[in-house]
Prior knowledge:
479 residues, globular, mainly alpha
Amino acid sequence: MGTAAQTFGGAMGKREYSLPLVITASSVGTMIEWYDFYIFGSLAAVLSLKFYPPGNDTFAYIAYLATFAVGFLVRPFGALFFGRIGDLIGRKYAFLVTLSVMGLSTFVIGLMPTFKTAGWFAPITLIGIRVLQGLALGGEYGGAAVYVGEHSPDNRRGFYTSFIQITATLGLFVSLLVILATQASMSKEEFSAWGWRIPFLISIILVAISLYIRLKLRESPIFAQMKSAGKTSIQPLKDAFTKWDNLKQVLISLFGATAGQGVVWYTGQFYALFYLQSVLKVNPRTSNIIIAVALLLSMPFFTVFGAMSDKMGRKKLMMAGCLIAVVTYLPIYHAMQRAAGNNVVTVKSARNKVTGAISLTPMTTDATGALVAAKEASNPAQGMLILLVFIQVIYVCMVYGPIAAYLVEAFPAKVRYTSLSLPYHIGNGVFGGMLPLIGLSLCAGTGNIYAGLYYPMVVAGMTFIIGSLLLRETVSSAD
């Protein structure tokens, strides 16, 4: 992979002077893209009933989650498309385009007609917009991570790139905050009728501010140096994926790092939210508050673990996070059920004869021992639920905080954008992004409210084994 001097050297110069601006511009823009991407999922309980046929709430919810998942599935294609642009033309240009596409797509969702108004045109168009969002995010993260990583001093790359890692959780947190603020400013009926559009529409203001900041940035010093010397790749896709040494590193990074990181991220944040709302029947507003507070408390730990990785290595922290998650998820979710004050013991699975949809109804037992539909959770122990979600997000910090630095250091500069974007977005977009849909479908299909955890436990366990055996520690190569 080359020495530190070959990979990162020769570009220090005045880099430190502009580093705060580099981090701010990259982080703010990436946070806004995550906000745009996740506002869609944060409003699942409301929008599923707006964009799909009435009459079967579970069908609408799972169909909406499938639409949500489309954005994740196309992220690897966005990684290839924009990664190639970033390695050919420049990092700055690529993530200016991705930010614009994401912002406009999100704004359009705020103007969309619902199923009641437009019929099937509404969900079909929504899928198309979701594709654009996924493509844009597929190019954004790699550009931001590479841009900050190539500006950072070698011995603090984990710390500085961890600010990019905060942006995904911060974007989710801001989406929940905006939703809660909007809900508080109007009645429940008004929010359901038209208020849900506001979080999408205000995105255009955030994007405009971020574009203004990003336009002030210069190109990455390492890329600028390579370009002036004529050493950039003219075929990034071919160089990244047809040469075995680099392709092997891509595969190891995928199965030994990003796949496990992806499922840990989505279990601790998104699956926890859907689980509270759909299985434990905690009302949506309370669920949003629980997740938002847990995210706020945990966000500083991304930089804590990023900085720790500069001292003790990226690999140890990431593998430890995956292993602890596998061992403790079931006890944590058992504790969440108790804290929710809901005696749900199973979920009833039934198939609608007309739509073919699987129905997911939380069930409990009455005084005779017969199964009956569970009532909405009353007086959940919010403090305990916040703690249990917080613990899960600490696992996220352990695996996600160091991973940007690891990926930047794992690949040579001339194909870095392309190489790191693909395993990141397959790991997060496919393995992680499919988790809410797979998890809740497993619950419905088996009747076991904990069955959804088996998927992330298996994937994180696979990553722990492969990563422990094959993942190369990159800190020493950058010292």
